[in-house]
Amino acid sequence: MKKKSNNLKFVVCNHEENFVDPRTVQSYFKKLTNQMGIESASFHTLRHTFATRAIEVGMDIKSVSEILGHADVSITLKKYVHSLTEHKRSQMQKIDTLWSNNRQIFSQN
Prior knowledge:
By secondary structure, the chain is an all-alpha fold. Helix content is 61%, strand content 0%. The chain is built from 5 helices and no strands.
């Protein structure tokens, strides 16, 4: 039996390992999202969501940037990662906690 090598450079192939036109994939994606009741979804939406959620859960910016194929992390930060209100609030809570702890120390003196 001859071992089958997979040297294909295509991102998306069909079950016969043939190239699938990006418009076909996009059409299928749109059909699926419509069936799920998701409006205005696109591959860019998935990309944006991935980057934002990866940063939210603590993935470092450099890794996210490399996964997205950006030359510089500033591109990732400017284009895809938007700090959400809850995240900002939790970050400010850290400062509030520090301030509260210091206030207790100084009030004891």
